[in-house]
Design goal:
TIM Barrel, six-stranded parallel β-sheet, about 140 residues, alpha/beta
Length: about 140
């Protein structure tokens, strides 16, 4: 395991290669999640859904990294049900990964985590529920 338990936002080969290089040089293996772009119209990051399996295969070959699963953020909306199809699509993609890469499916935040869990999330991010809304 690397210095961090899990890095959830690997979305480019350049980033993966650098993380792998630094981890391997330290004699570590860093667990990572691959960030998948669920909101193509938004300002979020991630690898496009159609490229995610090939990306996962490429990152899995990088020394010093261990792909543990996927992370994705649905479009922000006041209705959590609008996130459901995005979560469902990410879960199908997750299920297509090799077994060794299917440990964590991180999806769902404070406003939509219940729907994310119903759709198969194994990890949710509840920052706003715990710490309140950000200023600005």
């Amino acid at each position: 395991m690397g210095r961090f338990i899990l890095i959830q936002s690997v979305d480019t080969l350049k980033l993966a290669a650098e993380l792998g290089k630094r981890s391997a040089a330290s004699g570590l293996c860093q667990n990572v999640l691959l960030e998948v772009l669920l909101d193509e119209g938004g300002a979020k990051h991630g690898v496009p859904v159609g490229e995610a399996l090939a990306f996962a295969e490429a990152v899995s070959r990088i020394e010093g990294l261990s792909v543990r699963g996927l992370m994705g953020m649905a479009p922000l909306t006041s209705d959590p049900e609008e996130a459901r199809p995005h979560f469902r699509r990410l879960k199908r993609l997750f299920d297509s990964l090799p077994a060794e890469n299917r440990q964590v499916l991180s999806m769902g935040m404070t406003g939509d985590f219940e729907v994310a869990v119903e759709e198969g999330s194994t990890m949710v991010r509840l920052g706003t529920a715990l710490f309140g809304r950000r200023n600005g």
